[in-house]
DNA sequence: CGTGACGCCTCTT
DNA sequence: GGCGTCACG
């Protein structure tokens, strides 16, 4: 929804633009808008949970647009939505209900053999899932495209990035379809960008410094502007019946003060103001100013603009409506795409049944989680750092990229453990992080990785998006840090086995030599736990 | 004249 | 998420 009719209202200030204008600059991208558009090309597959090539067309769509930007020497920074805001629950429940009913009737049509009718309904039933976002993230990693998962609203994160300098991760403009970016006071927004890079640009400078047929924001400040947006109706707070963007603008223009507008509305008998409207209104305005965002520099959550207690005394310091705080370790794990921001579970890298996450890590840490492995498929992705997963067959699979001299290699092994024991253990530990500080010597097999090809217009085969590259493999002893953390977890379970065996990478059926393990001491073992709030 | 409810569209060849 | 249309006050 964004802000009701805001875009149409702002039309006088919107000008056509081609992204080439931002050549050499950085542009933030609202991942949701491209994901959503791309999902249309494969809505049925997505709704039915198909994992065919067809179900991945949304990825192709997205990456085409990324390549377009890179072709014009623009650095894309993709921003994903994180957890949902409490005050947005009403809006989202409504959408969910409609999607569900559409999905039901779509399946009915399909049963009746009406494919065409079914597709139409599936298109209204598609929703962007964390799994889809995560599939995309894996490609972005491989393609060295910057991305961040916002703790809550992507719009807020994007607006925050637009306030930062480029060398601190900032962006010069934002591409989105959502008018909320304007309410968040994002200085440069590009709407409706097509596949050639043509779009419509809104610059706040233009809005506040020019006059256009009776429409002027010259004497507006940020406070008044967001006040107008909230009055017109936003996702956090529906507007008072009878008030739209034009009346909102007039009210602000007339009273030039939010409190005066509120009291004027209260006295006006034409409108029915809910008892709690003024408080909700204040909160909604505060979200647009002080939303919780992720700061990549400090690797912590922060408010877009610091909020003093005196700003909103009625809250008694309760700022949860801005998005509850999270411990830094969790915030980072979310931002870097390791934790599902809705469930706080580690992502199931096999993209199968949602698994119960136990532990998760970032960067140089290993990720450990139980993942049900189906159809005995080989692991088919690679990632920076290391990941592990517990398979149905009670194995932990470890994948890690290692630097040996000038060469980057991929290491894959499996360790057998007792799953039940492991689950119990891990659950009792909560979500833990295990930095890789051990130095265990393990002999493993290794494979050379191909350097990623970032040629903008090079066609990629989608089936090729994530495999561990196969090439010559040979045995070399390497320090495998992940090993230590495996032991930490496994040793707590008496039934766990410490068998280590090599596993053929990806789909290559090539025979790899068995690896052997050499144990050493792990004195530097550190387990960090997520702090309770 | 402005609001709000309704239906239609976003992709792909 | 947006857009255009149209009945209503």
Automatic annotation (TrEMBL):
Superkingdom field: Eukaryota
EC number(s) per entry: 3.1.11.1
Keyword set, alphabetical order: Endonuclease, Hydrolase, Nuclease
Species for this entry: Dioscorea alata
Name of the protein: XPG/Rad2 endonuclease protein
Enzyme superclass (EC): hydrolase
């Amino acid at each position: 929804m964004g802000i009701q009719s805001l875009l149409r209202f702002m039309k006088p200030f919107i000008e056509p633009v081609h992204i080439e204008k931002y050549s050499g600059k950085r542009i933030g991208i609202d991942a949701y808008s491209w994901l959503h558009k791309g999902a249309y090309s494969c809505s049925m597959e997505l709704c039915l949970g198909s994992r065919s090539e067809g179900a991945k067309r949304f990825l192709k769509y997205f990456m085409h647009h990324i390549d377009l930007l890179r072709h014009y020497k623009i650095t894309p920074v993709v921003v994903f939505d994180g957890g949902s805001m409490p005050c947005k629950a009403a809006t989202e429940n409504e959408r969910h209900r409609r999607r569900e009913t559409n999905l039901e009737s779509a399946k009915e049509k399909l049963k009746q053999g009406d494919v065409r009718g079914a597709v139409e309904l599936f298109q209204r039933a598609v929703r962007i899932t964390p799994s889809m976002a995560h599939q995309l993230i894996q490609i972005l990693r491989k393609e060295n495209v910057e991305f961040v998962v916002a703790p809550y609203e992507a719009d807020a994160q994007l607006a925050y990035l637009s306030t930062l300098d480029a060398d601190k991760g900032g962006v010069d403009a934002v591409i989105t379809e959502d008018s909320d970016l304007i309410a968040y006071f994002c200085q440069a927004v590009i709407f409706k960008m097509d596949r050639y890079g043509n779009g419509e640009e809104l610059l706040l400078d233009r809005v506040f410094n020019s006059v256009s047929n009776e429409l002027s924001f010259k004497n507006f400040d940020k406070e008044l502007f967001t006040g107008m947006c909230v009055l017109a109706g936003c996702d956090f707070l529906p507007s008072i019946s009878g008030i739209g963007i034009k009346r909102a603008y007039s009210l602000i223009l007339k009273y030039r003060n939010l409190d005066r507008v509120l009291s004027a509305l209260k006295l006006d008998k034409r409108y029915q103001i809910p008892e709690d409207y003024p408080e909700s209104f204040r909160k909604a305005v505060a979200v647009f100013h002080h939303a919780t965002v992720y700061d990549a520099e400090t690797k912590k959550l922060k408010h877009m603009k610091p909020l003093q207690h005196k700003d909103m005394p009625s809250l008694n310091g309760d700022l949860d409506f801005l998005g509850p705080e999270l411990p830094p370790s969790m915030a980072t794990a979310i931002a870097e795409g390791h934790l599902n921001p809705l469930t706080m579970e580690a992502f199931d890298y096999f993209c199968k049944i949602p698994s119960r996450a136990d532990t998760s890590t970032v960067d140089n840490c290993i990720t450990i989680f139980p993942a049900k492995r189906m159809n005995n498929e080989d692991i088919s992705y690679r990632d920076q750092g290391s990941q592990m997963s517990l398979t149905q067959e009670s194995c932990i699979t470890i994948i890690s990229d290692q630097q040996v001299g000038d060469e980057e290699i991929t290491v894959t092994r499996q360790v057998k453990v007792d799953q039940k024991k492991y689950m119990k253990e891990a659950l009792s530990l909560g979500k833990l992080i295990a930095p890789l500080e051990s130095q265990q010597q393990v002999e493993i097999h290794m494979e050379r990785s191909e350097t990623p090809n970032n040629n903008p217009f090079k066609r990629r085969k989608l089936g090729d998006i994530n495999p561990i590259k196969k090439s010559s493999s040979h045995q070399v002893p390497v320090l495998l840090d992940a090993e230590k953390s495996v032991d930490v977890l496994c040793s707590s379970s008496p039934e766990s086995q410490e068998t280590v065996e090599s596993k053929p990478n990806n789909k290559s059926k090539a025979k790899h030599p068995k690896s052997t393990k050499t144990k050493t001491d792990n004195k530097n073992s550190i387990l960090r736990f997520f702090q309770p709030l």
